[in-house]
Specification:
383 residues; mainly alpha; 19 helices; 77% helix
Amino acid sequence: MISIPVLIAFYLLMPAAILWLCYKSTLVDKIGSVILAYLFGILIGNSGLLPQGAAGVQDEMSGITVALALPLLLFSMDVRSWVHSAGKAILSMLGATILVVFVAGLGSWLIQSHIENSWQFGGMAIGLYTGGTPNLAAIKTALNVDSTQYIMMHTYDAVNGIIYLIFVMSIGQRVFNKFLPKFKAVSLATTDIESNENIHSYVGIFKPRIVAGLLTGLGISIVILGLSFGISQLIPEEYSTAAIMLTITSLGIASSFIRRIREIPMTFQFGMYIILVFSLIVGSMANLEQLVNINWSMMFFVNFTVFGTMLLHAVFCKFLNIDTDTFLITSVSAVCSPPFVPVVAKALNNKEIILSGLTTGIIGYAIGNYLGVGFAYIFRAFL
């Protein structure tokens, strides 16, 4: 049995080892750092090595890590320039966002007799398929979702995500070109594309200048967390956690309008590192016995939400004359999150859509918490 300090050190340092493995091995990188973090977390959590009192540490650290990561992920946003540059990609994303709310709500209604608190899964699905893992993590915390159910949903999402990506990267373009207009090339600045392709690179993060900037960013995140906690004290206790998460998101976006904060290098990467810490912690809170017994209702819900939204989104793009590649890249940025955008763009042989995919994906990070938490409570009222 390990001690509490050793467990904390494991949570803080293991993501570095995971990122190193992804950097060294293409095969490991395809699995993904977040999934690996969950797997390592599940292994340590079900090994019998956790010390007495670990549950309290896990609860505290899981809440703090999400709260610190969110502002860091949002600092690098340049909202004004993105709104002007994304064009039809933003329109496509708007359609995907509206439709995932509808489909997730319908899915929650369909499974309500089979899964307790199905409204929570509707909210998490909206956050996950609008933004990504950081939103899922934030909404899990805001809605007090059971850790094992959270891991189950993320596991089923990973399985469906693999199937979805294989389809998009193999025959998706050919299939939807029969239904949607083909992409018309427009020259983009190569430097913009290349800078966005490196958004998940950690090379050079230990340079003194970078470290100093990240410490500043972390300090700002701590201030935002403190302010958010203070504001939450004015809210009824039932909604205080949700209020903290939404206030953190708002202050993080507001901070991105300050140029000196927005230009701090590698804040997004630092935020994703902290999300990996969160993933390890939540993974270690899961009960493996419950994970191996498939919950078919939840599996249906994830399938229904992902592929139901994709089909309706394609119809939406058809009516608005949005091309296949823009449809696919905005769908990928929503369903799988921005890290998969450059990979899919390469498979589609279209580097010009990388900027649009990353733009809509990171905007999705910003709005996912509002939509997920807000509609979760709406679903609860109706269900």
